[in-house]
Design brief:
By secondary structure, the chain is an alpha/beta fold. The protein contains two helices and nine strands, in the order βββββαββββα. The protein has helices spanning 91-102, 158-171, and strands at residues 25-29, 47-50, 58-61, 65-72, 76-82, 106-110, 122-127, 131-140, 145-148. The longest helix is centred in the last third of the chain and has 14 residues, at 158-171.
């Protein structure tokens, strides 16, 4: 036996499926433990984390980024992504914002206050494994607050549907990739 003097390096690339499914989810604000603080991490899968100090700013979901969609005057949509220092930058959030701008929607990256939740028509959990998943409701037990999005419907709202359709269309080459996200991999030759 001897080691070979020839190797083939291969990279396999595939689109990611939806980890949560596509049905709207219910989210819970967990206040008796922290994601990255002295209280530790909670046991639930889809939790909305607020800042650990005052619990007044929205950070992100437990394994997904937070995206809020507001309908402004004139039926114009605005996509809002929290931008505190505590949130991990998300390629999926960035992609959602790019697709939204391409559809002439406004986008904002800023500190997002808990009190703004009722202003959103739709909330999305976005990330590599979940892609874009609608959130049906967010509940905060300590204040008895429960916010419904897309009227609490059991299906995705129009914004989620459009964004997800456009993202999938780009990945599957059914829609033009104006952003140059997709790359053709050249065939390996000897």
């Amino acid at each position: 036996m001897a080691s070979t003097n020839r190797y083939t390096f291969c990279v396999y690339v595939t689109t990611v499926g939806v980890a949560y499914g596509i049905d709207p989810l219910r989210a819970l604000i967990l206040e008796d433990c922290d994601r990255v603080a002295p209280e530790g991490t909670g046991p639930a899968k889809i939790l909305l984390h607020l800042d650990s100090k005052r619990r007044t700013e929205i950070d992100e979901f437990s394994i997904s980024g937070f995206v809020g969609i507001r309908m402004d005057e004139g039926s114009c949509y605005t996509v809002v992504v929290p931008y505190p220092k505590r949130v991990i930058e998300s390629v999926t959030s960035d992609s959602v914002c790019e697709v939204a701008r391409d559809s002439s929607w406004r986008t904002e990256r800023r500190i997002l206050r808990y009190g703004e939740l009722p202003n959103f028509a739709e909330i999305l959990a976005v990330g590599t494994t979940g892609t874009v998943v609608p959130v049906k409701s967010i509940t905060r037990k300590s204040t008895s607050d429960m916010f419904l999005f897309n009227g609490g419907a059991d299906e995705a709202g129009p914004c989620c549907t459009e964004l997800l359709s456009n993202l999938k269309g780009i990945k599957q080459e059914k829609i033009e990739d104006k952003f140059r996200w997709c790359r053709k991999i050249a065939e390996v030759r000897d």
